[in-house]
Design goal:
By secondary structure, the chain is α/β, with parallel strands linked by helices. The chain is built from twelve helices and 15 strands. Strand 2 and strand 3 (43-48) form a beta hairpin. The termini are far apart. The structure holds threonylcarbamoyladenylate (TXA) and magnesium ion. Threonylcarbamoyladenylate is lined by residues 39, 41-42, 44, 68-71, 102, 104, 106, 118, 121, 123-125, 127, 147-149, 186-187, 189, 191, 200-201, 233-234.
Length: 354
């Protein structure tokens, strides 16, 4: 079943949020409705995390399987104790270093947070966003807000209010529009209920930065089909997908670009519309082919690529391409999150990885 609502869009200044609009959205949350709001990573689809019915509406609106748990957003570090049972010393340290910001910690769930938030687990994922609009909404409502990314299930996450509307118009009560988000990929999810701590999803906080605080943090990329993924949240392979089929080329150097060019020409010969997604330096290699080109920006600007990634995938979709040939190889810093999202969008079709 889907959640139906008449969607209203309220423009809100990203740095100085209008108190009236925020209060209106907070009222909708208190009454059990859904509010899409910007965070520094991507837009979230929020509901009162203490209201199991409101949380159900999130799953219904997104078409998200009830087996995939949600992140609970909090306004302050003090609120941690309202949503979790115990906060171990390492969690305290990471919180003081990385909150507010794009880090989500998995801890033991507080009894006041209904089980459907966490897909029945006794853990809960918590984060304190740094976006002024998200913080204003959290403070005005006085509630912890459960929110996944505000996209339809398995579509790329939304980095603008327009992306949210493209997916969820008619399924969310209010969309707070504060323009494009700045980080562009979702938060890093770190599970602190395991020893050593495990990165479940690379994101806005680089794994290298976490290791400065907890040198034993484990990250082993494992991508699963939908059956297996039900027991391992966040590991689902088919995710963040554009409608077009995406093939990811991972090699560095001219040979990889040549192989992409050959494939683009062959696909074109088969009457397929081809999209090319690379950094600026590689775009020229495809200038003479009948392809749709989108750039992720300068190759040495990993943050820029992360910021542009999801909009680029949606842009290529809107140009009606059948196949996207993407080129990306960086796995350091936030480049690892870009890599992860592209591998998932490619459903594992990675060519030429070293
Ligand atoms: O940046 C972000 O994290 C955005 C913004 C809106 O905050 N949110 C987001 O939520 O990306 P979502 O639902 O799209 O992704 C949440 C991830 C999923 O991979 C989910 O499986 C994992 O966090 N997760 C949530 N609760 C968990 C739990 N209790 N145990 C393990 N993984 C959990
Ligand atoms: Mg998501």
């Amino acid at each position: 079943m889907s959640y139906r609502a008449e969607t209203r869009v309220l423009p809100v200044d990203a740095l100085h949020p209008d108190a009236e609009a925020i209060e209106e959205a907070a009222g909708v949350l208190r009454r059990g409705g859904l509010v899409a709001f910007p965070t520094e990573t991507v837009y979230g689809l929020g509901a009162n995390a203490r209201d199991a019915d409101a949380v159900d509406r999130i799953f219904a609106a997104k078409g998200r399987p009830a087996s995939d748990p949600l992140i609970v957003h909090i306004a302050s570090i003090d609120m941690l104790d309202q949503v979790t049972q115990t906060v171990p010393p390492l969690a305290r340290e990471l919180v003081s270093r990385f909150f507010p910001g794009p880090l989500t910690l998995v801890l033991r769930r507080h009894p006041s947070i209904p089980p459907n938030v966490s897909a029945g687990r006794d853990t809960v994922a918590v984060r304190m966003p740094s976006h002024p609009v998200a913080l204003a909404l959290l403070r005005a409502s006085g509630l912890p807000i459960a929110a996944p990314s505000a996209n339809l299930f398995s579509r790329p996450s939304p980095t603008t209010a327009q992306h949210v509307l493209d997916d969820l118009r008619g399924r969310v009560d209010i969309v707070l529009d504060s323009g494009a988000t700045t980080v562009g990929v979702e938060s890093t999810v770190l599970d602190l209920t395991q020893e050593p701590p495990v990165v479940l999803r690379p994101g806005g906080v680089p794994v290298e930065a976490l290791r400065e605080w907890a040198s034993d943090v484990v990250y082993t990329p494992r991508y699963l089909g939908s059956d297996e993924a039900a027991s391992a949240p966040g590991m689902l392979l088919k995710h963040y997908s554009p409608r077009a089929e995406l093939r990811l080329f991972a090699g560095s150097g001219q040979a990889t670009l040549d192989a992409m060019g050959i494939m683009a020409a062959a696909l074109g010969g088969d009457d397929k519309r081809v999209g090319i997604l690379t950094t600026d330096d590689a775009q020229a290699a495809f200038a003479n082919l009948p392809v749709e080109r989108v750039s992720l920006g300068r190759a040495d600007d990993l943050e820029g690529a992360a910021r542009r990634l999801f909009a680029a995938l949606r842009d290529l979709d809107s140009r009606g391409v059948d196949v996207i040939l993407a080129h990306w190889s960086a796995r350091e810093g936030v480049g690892l999150a870009v890599w992860d999202r592209l591998v998932r969008a490619a459903e594992g079709r990675v060519l030429g990885a070293e």
